[in-house]
Amino acid sequence: MNHIIFGKTGLKVSRTGFGCIPIQRIPYDESTALLRRAYSAGINLYDTANGYTTSEDRIGTALSHVRDNIILCTKSMAPTPEVLMDHLNNSLKMMRTDYIDVFQFHNPTFVPRPGGKDGLYDALAKAKTQGKVLFIGITSHRRSVALEAVRSGLYDTLQFPFSYLSTDEELALIAECNRHNVGILAMKGMGGGILSNAKAAFTFLRQYDSVIPIWGMQTMEELDEFLRYEASPPRLDDTLQRVIDTDRSKYMGSFCRACGYCLPCPAKIPIPMAARMEFLLGRMLREQFLTDEWTENMRKINDCTKCGHCIKKCPYELNVPELLRKNHDFYMAE
User: Fold this and answer.
1) Average pLDDT, the chain
2) What CA–CA distance (Å, rounded) separates 56 from 71?
3) Domain boundaries, the chain
4) What is d(CA 133, CA 159) in angstroms, rounded to the nearest whole number?
5) What is the pLDDT of residues 218-230, one digit of tens each?
6) 3-244 is a CATH 3.20.20.100 domain
7) For residues 17 and 46, is the Cβ–Cβ distance under 8 A?
């Protein structure tokens, strides 16, 4: 297993990371076996979140006995310092540990800073002095927020969507992180489930020496495939480049990054989630979306007036109403 130094953290991290969203969807014994197989193969970084239902508990069940040999990254969307601390303490409990290697602010709309009225950064900095957190990170779907965080000098790590569907402007964040020695976690290396060629996805990201993809794996077959690529990294040849070019041509105009610039919606449609519902049902725990509440949210798409607000605000020039309608029809057929 290849390793790199994870930015200014100084941690020695496997080039292949494990994204723990999908393990919510499989039986406990299968997730335990999967995580232990990953560990035995040399994967030492595991990324999860307080909001990923049973994910943290499954990590604790499978890997607490090797805690000193792994790197745990988790995150919270807490709106207040009090809730943030509740989430942190719950993460510690679920993962059977007394510290988190990298605790991340989970996709905030702004960059938390010391002395901010929100109090979030100060709360996490205090937890760091207490030894509950070793390093402070941030995750984002918004390029502007990510760029500000990297340049602020306040953050040890950035987690951002990087894949071969990323724009040149998004990929430029990698060089910016390198300039500031910020560790990079690449989420959604498979485009949030939209891509199917793992070899092409792996090979594309392997071009960037400082990037650690956190592949979301839920079967032994998926894990073994990435382990094969890790053992003998494929070369980006003409065949794989054609796959990448074809997918970019097919999906670049219909891939929602959940950046949130389209909000607020006059019809109160939760666009970033609703526009990705087909992929969320395929990758997340389905039961959390197949609810009365989410059925009502998806029905709001019928109230869309096509006012154009979301289209004007979308930095990726997506036809948002069309994308919403497609996801509405898929959801209602479930």
Assistant:
1) 94
2) 13
3) 3-244, 271-332
4) 17
5) 999 999 999 999 9
6) yes
7) yes
